[in-house]
Each structure stands twice: as structure tokens, then as C-alpha cells.
User: Which sequence fits this backbone?
């Protein structure tokens, strides 16, 4: 590997004098030992590839443009000099008060100097954000990146649109299942239909809350000698410190089949029962009963209240508002991204619920419900980042659409997605409310 | 606290001072003292234990070993058995109470907090700070200027750049502040 | 020894209005102001591996994705993996959590280094899509250029004397939609339902990774574990943003602690320390014992003023003036005697070499969780400026002393 590394650096210097897209093809064979993704990264007119950052509520994905996986995925927190973990980075940010931006500033510095090992001044920045981000947060990020870190330019890329790029598709219903909420937005012919979005507070946070409620009722603690006792209030301190709820969510919770869910709802206990999950908790073991594993995710499909519809209802609501000719297309091109998309059994259940609701409403459009998936690798939690990384390779687009530091210092205007002056809109990338 | 202006009095029944200026608790458990080399002006507090009988321990100047701390040289397992190799502690190393040090090397100007456990064959370079309660796994190496905390211990921060002067001064003042009464 | 080096109890105000302990501040002699990490430009000086302490050149670090080739981390607990022999082959194992490469798909191999990393199985198709996106971009650019130069289009009727026909043809070609298209990904309609065995089998914690392990290996499918290459660390060089002079630079080697350039604040600014723990009693005057130390190699004249603003405790001692001799390495370290035991006045209690002990009287109305005593520190030291005549000016900064409850 050491040999091939030096070989690739030699060929890198040769091909950097090549012109544009043509030489990429020719030099592919000579640089066969370097991974394809790195070649894209090197041949962007000699400029250094941009930094692509997606800041989520729990996890932040960081990397460089042109690479097909993020360099680092870290938690959205950092440890300050007093060794206290700082988590609420966006609490109370105000672009006019520099002191409120200090946590965000330190987080970005942590990203650059601990993980990326690069100086902010050298590379353009692309921030993948949800279109529902409040504008004071966008402006705060702009102040931190352009003024305090002195990066050359910044570009805010909408996460739902970015998620479609790896699939080379123009039309999809992108469904982002994150920590705070589930947000879905249709994209048709490359245009994000901004007026058709829908979000419901059913994400990782809601599932964890339901998991906690179920455990409080039915959790069991097993001692080293095998004796069991019910989970008590005093145990929660250990559970919170060791982040066991997150562990159970990632490793044990699954989305059950629709037939089983229906049976459980009417009080039956369908056979076979899921196995329990045992994990270490301090000096004892925490036993998560099988039905807790099965029921925790049911909160996602609860359609009990009007303003908190289940995920399948949300999708139907969105499609119902779209033009007639798009409806069948959107149902057949669902794209589920986000951390929660990794849960086993989620996609088949979502399909079954959508089809059933379609039959109830006598729709013909739900006949073929399909999902976009990259089957060989589970990339859902960073699909938007991946799209952003591919987008960040287009150096000309980046030059044309980014907000430069000079422009910001002069005008202090950050165009919104619905702003008339927005370059996104000019290129037909975003459709405003009619 | 400003150690330069504080004087702690040690009773001559309990502590003794050697020719090279080391102030040692008389009943400190020191085994194999022929293998232990302390360069001078160090303080070994009450109930600390130095196991020089297993292999050599070498300490620098102005070290401070807190109460009930255990210092033992480490070993490394090979296919044909295990070998012990000597431990090197640098100058101006401040070790607080109740620590267990089984490291291969502790660099100079390091501050080790209360109750820390430094695993076998680990190497801690100069100017580091080990937080109280840290448990350093065996065979780990830490670069200079790291703050090491947690269980298993990881690098969580950086010490200030002027740590060398800061700790060297603190170690010297600490040494001066402990006075054995006549 | 209650708390050694309580560094964060005394905060100094930096020129950018951030508060930091003196040990974390720097002093720019050219601009004669204090600087902290937030108002200096940070640059990466050298990249090195934290475990093998080997210097890696910046270009090489970039190709290797900022990872060391020799050192590996355990995917479960992040500790360093150590190599062991088993017969002819070599395997890696973790001494903390007892994971070894026998539990991953590559059990052992002939060489100690070069353990295979996880690869992205979709790289080829993503590359094709990316190439297509670039073609679209060129197309878009050509269309934008045409709009700019519309007034200059001459048309195809001219002869090719000036080579215009060729240019026209070339431009027309660039505007055509690229014919080669990467295949559009088909959505998957047939999905396997959740099998019973998925949830009735025992949850094997070694097969299903925790979130920490998953985020360390983005390309794993939740159960794959390979030894992870150790991430490299970067060493920083600090530079004053105003005069672009370096404030702190270490020597080349990663394991060195010797500074090529060092402008630490404590060598130019008198350091205030807490002498004894203060006991604050409500309603009344409490003494606060602090000491001031001069670490520089030149004499320092110091004036301490009380700064009674709203949130701080009221200091009854308005002003203290004194001068401190320079810090002398060679002075008798073993001298136990304190030069002046009799207090000079009520405020200056004692002197010892380059430090002075002070007693400030503070009026306490109510005892809060964190009580702050604000002071203004003025000092004069010939080293505070590069030019010797400017060094005789007084410098000033604010200081906050954080006193606990009792």
C-alpha cells in the first residue's frame, strides 16, 4: 500500500497539468491504484476540494468534496477546556452578539483542527442543511464560517435535494427520518416543491421516549447470579450515563410486521415472541423484554391524533396535494434517509402501511410503491452528505452560487430559498409558493 | 493555591531527608532500593510504595509522589514468556494520591491526578496531564501536551503551551514548601 | 494538597474581550496586547500520528486521508491494537476489550501493517453519476456563456477565413445535451418482509455494533469490524492576526516540547494567584488573600485597582502599588526564609523574591454560588514592547477572581 501511495502521488503531479474533464478519463488507467473517489478530488482544476459539513441534531458528518464517504462522523458536541461537554450549540445564537456564537465557533474549530486537519482559509465550505432551518441559525453559521474562521465562501445546500444526487434521479419523495423530526419533501423534475413539505415530530427522540416509557413499566435488571428484579428509579442514573437507551435503539429496536402490529393493538400476543435483549448496566445486566423491542417503534405509525399523523399518513397527505400526474411517480420513488432509516423492518412496514391506506382511500396510485436504495451498503444516515459531496465537486457551480466572504462583508445578505434574488431560484432549482 | 507562599511542616519522626535532598516518609514501602535511582530533590509522601525489586525505577528531579501511590515497573508478554523492563519517570513529575503507575515511561513535567491508573507498558510523553480517575489502558502512547481523561482514557484536550514552565515551577515550589522541622 | 494549580480561578481579559486564565494567553510584543486562541490565526504546523509519533508530511497525510499506516485502533473501544505472532501469521488484538482480528473477516495476515480497510461497493456507479453531473455543468456553463456573448454572434454565413466557422461549430457542440448518460437508478419494489428469525434470534452484541463503532466506520453495515487506522493529529502554530508575527511555534519533531518561538503571557504580565482559600461570610468585610508573581526577566511595576461594577464583590481596598524584582533562576531555591515577615502595611503582607502576598478587604452583601472580584491590573515592564522606549508605557487589563462559596 505504501508503494501504491507514492505511485499515485507521482501520477497526480503529472495529471494535474491536464485540462478539464478529458484528462480524468485518460489518466484513470494510469492511476488505477488510487481509489476512483480520490481522483475526482484531485482533479478539480488544482483547487483544493471543498469542505462538506452536515450538522444534524445528534451527529455531524464531515468530509471533503469528491469522496464517497464522510471522513468523520462525530457527535454534535465538543469538550471545552474545563472538560465539560457542550451540547446545545445553537441555543440563543444571535449574529450580532459574538459571545453567543462562541460554542458554535469552538465546534467548527474542533472540526477543522482535530478532524479535517486543514486551515479554514484554504477551502470553500458547503453546509448541507434542512430547508426548514430558521434563518437566524443560517446567519449565525455564516458569521462563524465567513467572519470568524475566514473561509473564502459558503454555500447552503438543501438536504432533501442533495439526497437525490447519488441516485441520478430528478423525481423522488425524499423522507428524512432524523432525531428531532421526520420531514418529507417531494422533488419533481429537479425542482424542490417547497410548498408541499410536511414534518412531524416523530424521529429518534420520540422512539427513545416511548422506549423509556416501556422500560419504566417492564424493564428488568439481572444480577450476576441470575436473580432478576424490576427496573427501579435509581437505575436510570446509570442508564443515562452509559447512554444505554441509545444503544438499545441502535442494536435492539425493530419495526414489526403490520399483521403483528394490528394483533398487538387489539391486545393479542402474536407468536413467536421476540427474544429479550441483555446488555451490561454498571455491575448488573439490563434485560429488555422482547415486546419492548417490538413496540418502541410503533410510535412512528400511531395515527391517533390529527396533527401528529403516522409516517404513512404523512406521505399520503403530501402526495394528495401534488399534481395528478406526479402522484404515481412519487409513490414509486420513495427515498428514505436519515439515522432512523437503519431500523430493521422499517421499509417493508412503511410500504405495507402505505399500500393499505391507499386501498382504504381507493387510490390506484399506490399499486407500485418503490424505494430508492443502495443495497450493498447502508448509507442512509449520510445520504444527504454524499449528495452534497458530489455537488461540491462541481467547481464552476460552486463558484457561481456560493456566497463569498467579500460579498457578505459588504451586503450582509444571505439569500433564502424563497428570496427573489436567489441564484437557486434563477436556475430553477427551487419552486416558490404559487 | 500559590505553593510559593505556603509552608507545610513535616515531622522529623516520620520524614527524613537524604543527601541528594530527597524528602522521604520513613515507613514508605520501598523494595529493592538498590534498583531505584532518584536524581534528587523529590518528595515521597506517606504510605507510597515503590517496587524496585522487580526491576529498576529511575526518577528525575523535583518529583512529587503522593500518598498511597504505587509505582511498579511493567512487563511485556512475548511468545516465549514475559520480560520486565525498567521504568523511566522524568523531571518535575507531580503524582497525586492513590495512583497506580505501571507505565513504561512517564515524561517530564507531567501532572497525574488523584486515583489515576496508568496501564502496563504505556508511554506518556512530556507535558501531559492525566485527569483524576483516568484509567489508561496498557500499551497506549500519548503525544506531548495531551489532556488524558476517562475510562478507557482518551486524549480529550490540550494543556496550555506554557505547561513546561508552569509545572516545573509548581514542582520546585512544592518541594520547597514541605519543610522538615528540626 | 487540595487543588494544585487552580488555573481557571483567575481570568484575564484578552484584547478580544474573551476571558481566559493567564496560562492560555499569549502576548504579542509587536502590538503590545494580549491574545488568546480565539483571536489568533491557527495554522497546522505538522501532522503526526499520536501513537507512533511519526511525522507525516501534509501532502502524504492528504492522500492517506489523515490516517496512520502503521497504527490501528480497536473498532469497539478505540484503544491501540497491538500485533502478536501466531505461528507464521500476525494478528492484532486489543488489551482493553479483548477484541482481536479473529472476530473480523480478515483473521490474520502475513504482514503487520496494511490491514485492508472497508471499501465503498457503490464507488463505480457513483463515479459515473458524478461524471455525468460534470457534463451537465459544462453544458450549463456553455449556455450561460452564450447569453453573455449573444451580441457577438456573427452567424454561419461568413467564410472560414478567420476561423469563425470552427468556433461556431465548437460552441454548437458544447450546447448539445450530452448523449452519454449514466444509468438512472431503479427504485426497488420487491422488499423482503421482516422474517421471524430477525427478532427471535438472540441479540448478539458482538455482531451488532454500538453507535460509537458505527460512526467510526461509516462504511460498515452495522456488523463489520476491521481494525481502524489511527487518525492523525495536527499541531498548531499561532499567529497574531494584526501583525502576522508568530506567537507560538514548536520545534519540528512531534515529540519535542521545545519552542522555537514562544510569547507566553505569563512571561510579560504579572500573574495573580490565590494564596489561600477564602471564606466568605455574609454581611461584613472579609479578607481575600492573593499573591502577585513576576515571571519575566525584567523588573515590573504593578498597580492593582479595585473595579467595583455591578456583578462583582465590592473591594474596599482601592489601590495597591508595588514593584517586583525579576524572576531569577539561579537564586537559592532552598532558602526557606521568607524575606519579609513583617507586613509593610495592611495590604502587602509579605514578600518573597519575585512575588508578593496581598490582603484585600472585600465587603460581602450576599454570598452567591460564584462570587467575582474584579480588579484592574496595570503594569510596566520594559519587555512588553519590541522597542525599548515604548516598553516604559503602562499596560492595562482587567482581571476577574472567581471565589467560591466558602
Assistant:
Amino acid at each position: 500500500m505504501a508503494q501504491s501511495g507514492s505511485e499515485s502521488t507521482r501520477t497526480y503531479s503529472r495529471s494535474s497539468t491536464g485540462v478539464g474533464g478529458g484528462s480524468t478519463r485518460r489518466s484513470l488507467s494510469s492511476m488505477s491504484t488510487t481509489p476512483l473517489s480520490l481522483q475526482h478530488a484531485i482533479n478539480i482544476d488544482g483547487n483544493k476540494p471543498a469542505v462538506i459539513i452536515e450538522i444534524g441534531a445528534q451527529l455531524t458528518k464531515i468530509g471533503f468534496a469528491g469522496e464517497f464517504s464522510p471522513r468523520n462522523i462525530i457527535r454534535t458536541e465538543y469538550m471545552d477546556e474545563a472538560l465539560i461537554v457542550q451540547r446545545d450549540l445553537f441555543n440563543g445564537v444571535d449574529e450580532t452578539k459574538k459571545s453567543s456564537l462562541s460554542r458554535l465557533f469552538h465546534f467548527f474549530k474542533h472540526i477543522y483542527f482535530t478532524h479535517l486537519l486543514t486551515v479554514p482559509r484554504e477551502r470553500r465550505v458547503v453546509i448541507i442543511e434542512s430547508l426548514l432551518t430558521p434563518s437566524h441559525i443560517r446567519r449565525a453559521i455564516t458569521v462563524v464560517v465567513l467572519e470568524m474562521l475566514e473561509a473564502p465562501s459558503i454555500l447552503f445546500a438543501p438536504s432533501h435535494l442533495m439526497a437525490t444526487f447519488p441516485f441520478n434521479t430528478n423525481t423522488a419523495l425524499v423522507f428524512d427520518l432524523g432525531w428531532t423530526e421526520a420531514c418529507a419533501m417531494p422533488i419533481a423534475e429537479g425542482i424542490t416543491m417547497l410548498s408541499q413539505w410536511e414534518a412531524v415530530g416523530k424521529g429518534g427522540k420520540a422512539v427513545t421516549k416511548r422506549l423509556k416509557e416501556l422500560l419504566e413499566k417492564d424493564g428488568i435488571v439481572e444480577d450476576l447470579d441470575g436473580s432478576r428484579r424490576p427496573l427501579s428509579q435509581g437505575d436510570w442514573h446509570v442508564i443515562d450515563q452509559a447512554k444505554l437507551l441509545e444503544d438499545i435503539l441502535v442494536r435492539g429496536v425493530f419495526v414489526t410486521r403490520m399483521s403483528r402490529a394490528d394483533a398487538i393493538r387489539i391486545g393479542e400476543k402474536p407468536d413467536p415472541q421476540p427474544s429479550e435483549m441483555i446488555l451490561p448496566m454498571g455491575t448488573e445486566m439490563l434485560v429488555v423484554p422482547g415486546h419492548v423491542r417490538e413496540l418502541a417503534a410503533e410510535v412512528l405509525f400511531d395515527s391517533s391524533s390529527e396533527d401528529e399523523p403516522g409516517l404513512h399518513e404523512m406521505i399520503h397527505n403530501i402526495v394528495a396535494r401534488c399534481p395528478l400526474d406526479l402522484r404515481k411517480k412519487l409513490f414509486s420513488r420513495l427515498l428514505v434517509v436519515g439515522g432512523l432509516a437503519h431500523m430493521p423492518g422499517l421499509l417493508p412496514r412503511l410500504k405495507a402501511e402505505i399500500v393499505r391506506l391507499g386501498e382504504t382511500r381507493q387510490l390506484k396510485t399506490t399499486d407500485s410503491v418503490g424505494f430508492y436504495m443502495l443495497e450493498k451498503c447502508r448509507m442512509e444516515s449520510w445520504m444527504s452528505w454524499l449528495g452534497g459531496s458530489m455537488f461540491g465537486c462541481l467547481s464552476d457551480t460552486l463558484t457561481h452560487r456560493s456566497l463569498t466572504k467579500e460579498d457578505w462583508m459588504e451586503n450582509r445578505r444571505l439569500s433564502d430559498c424563497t428570496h427573489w434574488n436567489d441564484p437557486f431560484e434563477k436556475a430553477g432549482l427551487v419552486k416558490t409558493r404559487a | 493555591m500559590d505553593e510559593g507562599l505556603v509552608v507545610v511542616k513535616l515531622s522529623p519522626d516520620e520524614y527524613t531527608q537524604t543527601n541528594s535532598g530527597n524528602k522521604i516518609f520513613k515507613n514508605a514501602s520501598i523494595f529493592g532500593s538498590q534498583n531505584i535511582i532518584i536524581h534528587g530533590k523529590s518528595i515521597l509522601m506517606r504510605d507510597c510504595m515503590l517496587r524496585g525489586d522487580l526491576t529498576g525505577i529511575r526518577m528525575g528531579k523535583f518529583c512529587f509522589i503522593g500518598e498511597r501511590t504505587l509505582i511498579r515497573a511493567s512487563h511485556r508478554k512475548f511468545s516465549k514468556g514475559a520480560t520486565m523492563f525498567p521504568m523511566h519517570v522524568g523531571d518535575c513529575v507531580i503524582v497525586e494520591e492513590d495512583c497506580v503507575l505501571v507505565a513504561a515511561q512517564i515524561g517530564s513535567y507531567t501532572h497525574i491526578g488523584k486515583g489515576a491508573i496508568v496501564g502496563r507498558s504505556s508511554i506518556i510523553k512530556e507535558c501531559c496531564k492525566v485527569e483524576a480517575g483516568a484509567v489508561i489502558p496498557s500499551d497506549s502512547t500519548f503525544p506531548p501536551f495531551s489532556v488524558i481523561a476517562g475510562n478507557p482514557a482518551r486524549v480529550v484536550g490540550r494543556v496550555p503551551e506554557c505547561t513546561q514552565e508552569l509545572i516545573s515551577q509548581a514542582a520546585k515550589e512544592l518541594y520547597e514548601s514541605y519543610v522538615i522541622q528540626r | 494538597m487540595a487543588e494544585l494549580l487552580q488555573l481557571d480561578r483567575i481570568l484575564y481579559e484578552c484584547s478580544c474581550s474573551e476571558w481566559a486564565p493567564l496560562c492560555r494567553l499569549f502576548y504579542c510584543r509587536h502590538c503590545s496586547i494580549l491574545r488568546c486562541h480565539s483571536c489568533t490565526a491557527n495554522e497546522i504546523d505538522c501532522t503526526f500520528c499520536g501513537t507512533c509519533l511519526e511525522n507525516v508530511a501534509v501532502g502524504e497525510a492528504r492522500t492517506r486521508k489523515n490516517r496512520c499506516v502503521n497504527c490501528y485502533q480497536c473498532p469497539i473501544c478505540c484503544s491501540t491494537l497491538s500485533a502478536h505472532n501466531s505461528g507464521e501469521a500476525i494478528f492484532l488484538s486489543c488489551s482493553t476489550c479483548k477484541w482481536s482480528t479473529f472476530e473480523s473477516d480478515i483473521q490474520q495476515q502475513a504482514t503487520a501493517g496494511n490491514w485492508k480497510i472497508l471499501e465503498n461497493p457503490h464507488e463505480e456507479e457513483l463515479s459515473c453519476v458524478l461524471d455525468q453531473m460534470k457534463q451537465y455543468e459544462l453544458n450549463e456553463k456553455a449556455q450561460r456563456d452564450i447569453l453573455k456573448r449573444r451580441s457577438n454572434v456573427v452567424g454561419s454565413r461568413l467564410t472560414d477565413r478567420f476561423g469563425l466557422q470552427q468556433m461556431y461549430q465548437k460552441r454548437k457542440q458544447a450546447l448539445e445535451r450530452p448523449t452519454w448518460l449514466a444509468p438512472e437508478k431503479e427504485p426497488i419494489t420487491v422488499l423482503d418482509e421482516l422474517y421471524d428469525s430477525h427478532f427471535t434470534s438472540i441479540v448478539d452484541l458482538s455482531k451488532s455494533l454500538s453507535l460509537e463503532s458505527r460512526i467510526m466506520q461509516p462504511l460498515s453495515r452495522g456488523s463489520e469490524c476491521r481494525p481502524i487506522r489511527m487518525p492523525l493529529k495536527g499541531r498548531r502554530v499561532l499567529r497574531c492576526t494584526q501583525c502576522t508575527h508568530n506567537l507560538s511555534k514548536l520545534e519540528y519533531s512531534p515529540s519535542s516540547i521545545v519552542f522555537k518561538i514562544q510569547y507566553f503571557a505569563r512571561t510579560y504580565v504579572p500573574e495573580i494567584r490565590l494564596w489561600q482559600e477564602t471564606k466568605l461570610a455574609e454581611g461584613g468585610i472579609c479578607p481575600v488573600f492573593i499573591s502577585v508573581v513576576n515571571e519575566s526577566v525584567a523588573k515590573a511595576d504593578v498597580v492593582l485597582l479595585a473595579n467595583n461594577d455591578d456583578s462583582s464583590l465590592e473591594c474596599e481596598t482601592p489601590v495597591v502599588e508595588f514593584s517586583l524584582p525579576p524572576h531569577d533562576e539561579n537564586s537559592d531555591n532552598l532558602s526557606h526564609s521568607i524575606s519579609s515577615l513583617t507586613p509593610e502595611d495592611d495590604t502587602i503582607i509579605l514578600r518573597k523574591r519575585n512575588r508578593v502576598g496581598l490582603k484585600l478587604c472585600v465587603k460581602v452583601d450576599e454570598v452567591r454560588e460564584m462570587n467575582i472580584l474584579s480588579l484592574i491590573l496595570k503594569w510596566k515592564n520594559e519587555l512588553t514592547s519590541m522597542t525599548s522606549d515604548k516598553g516604559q508605557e503602562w499596560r492595562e487589563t482587567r482581571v476577574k477572581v472567581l471565589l467560591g462559596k466558602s
